[in-house]
Amino acid sequence: MTEFDNLLIKVAKQVFLNSEIDTLGRELGFTPTDVQRHIATNHKTQNVTWDGTLNMLRDWRKSQEIATEREGLKTALKKAGQIHLADELFPLSYSVSQTKIHDRDVKAKRRKVEIPSPSVKEDDQKQRDRDDTGDDMRKQVDENMDHDEKRAMLEKIKQPRKIVESKLTDLSNSSSKHLDTIKGDIQETLEDIKGNFNDIKREKNKLIRDIDKEADKEIRAIKERRQKQIEAYKGEIAREQKISEDKQAKLLPCLSDTDKISEIVSDKIMDLTGKIPDAIKDNQHDETLVNEAPQVLASIDENLSLNVHQDVSDCLDQIQNEVERVKFVEGEVDGKYYGRIDGYIGKWELVKSINISSVVKEPHVGGLVSDDEICVQDRNNFAVYVTNFKTQHTEKVIDGTGLITSCVPIGSTVIVSGIRGIDYSDDFVGRCITLFDRQWKVIRDISIPRIGEHDEVYFDVDKDGMIIAAQYCQYNIYVINPADGEIVNTINGDQAVWGAIQTLSSGDIVIAGYGASSVHHVISRSGEEKALIYRKGWWALSECRVDKLTDTLYVKYWDRAHKIITADQVSPDGIVQARRIVEYVRSNYSPKDVNPFLVTSSGNLVGCDGHKLHIYKKTFIL
Predict the structure, then answer these.
(1) Are 41 and 55 in contact (CB under 8 A)?
(2) Is residue 262 part of a domain?
(3) What is the 8-class DSSP label of residue 116?
(4) Quick one: CA dihedral 570, 574, 580, 582, positive or negative?
């Protein structure tokens, strides 16, 4: 085993990581496949060996010359990152001396065994000729020569030196020029590298700026979206706050009403509590009767006590019944929230009378357009006015076009008005229903199929905002979508519509019966009759209106015996709960009194005697 083979073994032992073996193998000229094959040899057994690495190094040596194999291995080790190992195996002084000795031995061997080529023979011959020439010159100089001959001879001897010096100068110049050229190439390459780097830098910086711009754009968009969302949420908060405040404003009176009811009940109980001792005391003043007939006094006391207690008990039962009927009701009417204390019968009190403006010559009530606004039409010229209950101000909103049959709001933005058909054909009652915005600008006209000769159409708006309409004296009731005016359903009932239509929260419909008489029918959405609203004494042209929050019915009629307008309170199943809850005298010029009796969303009643609007509010009594 040679010294270099020992070096190969040392390398195989020291370079043991697969990544290091791979790097060294590539620097030695092996393909990745060959390197992996040698690495695999290291892992053939359970214990990792360096046999594969040594085989790889020996395979490499086979392709190397003896003169260059050491330097080649050292160079490969350094390029592979094994600098310390290279310096350890090949010290500088040792490497140089060994290389020189080795080169000398190799040259000696070559002189012994190699056959000189023709060119080598010629070079040797030239060298021998130069040596002979020098010897001849030196012999000639040594002989007796004159001065000039000796100078000429010396010049001849110096000639080769001058040639060499000239060559050295030329070599130095050419080398310098060549190296300067190389240096220029290197400098140019460096400039190219710098230029390429600067180009890449500019390109990447542009990309960075583009990214920044895009990011800034996205950030602005995000900020804008955030601001919009924040503004939207703030708007929702403001709307919800207004809704909340409106609800609170409507509910606070309920607390006050509850306190008033509690006070009334307490006062009544206190009054009843005082009646028992007062009654006994009132029957103790006759001392004569006591002295003369104790048995009579005892009998009187006993009967009185029994009567008083019975009266008090009856009153207490009445109080309990009335209090138990009190309830808190709440819900949405025409898209707005309402809440109030209701359920009891109570007493209706006139809280306000409003003179209808003198500009309205023959007032006809069309309907409520809000909780505190009423639509009034002048039957003289059909002009339409709106009167505000709070301000008592009357404003003209529409010039005359036709007689209004009814007027109902849809939410807080739309008003539906029914006008006696002014544009009809054999098939349709045209422009019988008109949708207005709150500025009384026409949104659209709605037509329904026409049957028979009548051109009057009655309608109401249900809790879902759908229009429920029917032609006078006909059996078909149409469900109309106000958004497009299309009929979405037709109800075929057993009863004809002879007047006003009202809807209940259950979806049922109340219609005026034959000839708009004292009969009103409650029918389902399938047309089936569910209840008959009737009481003897209701005269023809009675009007029925519904409290949309409680479904309580109020039937207005003409009391011929007393010559007054009055109304009864009725449940949806036809039970009369209270009679003659309000009364007022009608005007002389309006003998038929076709003005309806209206119910506001807050539960107040509104009547019209032809000159004034009367507003009634229910209060709790015992």
Answers:
(1) yes
(2) no
(3) P
(4) positive
* 566 domain residue, yes or no: yes
pLDDT recorded at residue 430: 57
Task: For residues 454 and 542, state if they share a domain.
Answer: yes
Q: How far apart are CA 461 and CA 418, in angstroms?
A: 12
pLDDT, average across residues 507-530: 86
Measured distance CA(425)–CA(433) in Å, rounded: 15
pLDDT at 427 over 80: no
Residue-wise pLDDT tens digits, 218-230: 999 999 999 999 9
Q: Which has the closest alpha carbon to 481: 384, 414, 528? A: 414
* Distance (Å, whole) CA 616 – CA 354: 12
Residues 516 and 577 in one domain: yes
Percentage with pLDDT > 70 across the chain? 80
Residues 10-25: tens digit of each pLDDT: 999 899 888 999 999 9
Write the Ramachandran bin of 334: left for phi over 0, alpha for psi from -120 to 50, otherwise beta: left
pLDDT of residue 397: 92
Write down which residue in 216, 251, 286 finishes a domain: 251
- 202 & 100 share domain: no
Report the number of distinct structural domains present in the chain: 4
Residue 148 belongs to a domain? no
**Other beta carbons less than 10 A from residue 383's beta carbon:** 18
* Whether 402 and 312 share a structural domain: no
Q: Supply the DSSP string of 292-356, one letter for each residue.
A: H-HHHHHHHHHHHHHHHHHHHHHHHHHHHHHHHH-EEEEEEETTEEEEEEE-S--EEEEEEEEEP
Candidates 148, 186, 601, 177; CA nearest to 369 is 601
Alpha-carbon separation of residue 100 from 78, 280, 550 (angstroms): 22, 153, 122
Alpha-carbon dihedral sign for residues 147, 148, 151, 156? negative
Tens digit of each residue's pLDDT (9 = 90 or more) over 162-182: 888 888 888 888 888 888 889
Residue 333 falls within a domain, yes or no? no
Residue 620: both structure tokens together: 């709790």
Of 593, 570, 565, 548, the closest CA to residue 350 belongs to 565
Mark whether 244 and 285 lie in a shared domain: no
My answer on whether 426 and 514 are in the same domain is yes
The reply to whether the predicted model has a pTM over 0.85 is no
**Domain assignment of residue 308, given as a range:** 267-327
pLDDT at 493 (0 to 100): 85
Same domain? For 416 and 557 the reply is yes
What is the residue-wise DSSP string for 479-504?
EEETTTTEEEEEEEEEEEE-S-EEE-
**pLDDT bucket at 183, cuts 50 / 70 / 90:** confident
The mean pLDDT of 324-352, rounded to a whole number, is 92
For residue 151, count CB atoms less than 10 angstroms from its CB and return exposed for 0-12, middle for 13-18, buried for 19 or more. Answer: exposed
Distance (Å, whole) CA 340 – CA 257: 9
More confident call, 621 vs 284: 621
Tokens 């339409």: give the residue: 384
- Residue 545's Cβ-count burial label (10 Å; 0-12, 13-18, 19+) is buried
Domain boundary (281, 297, 327) is at 327
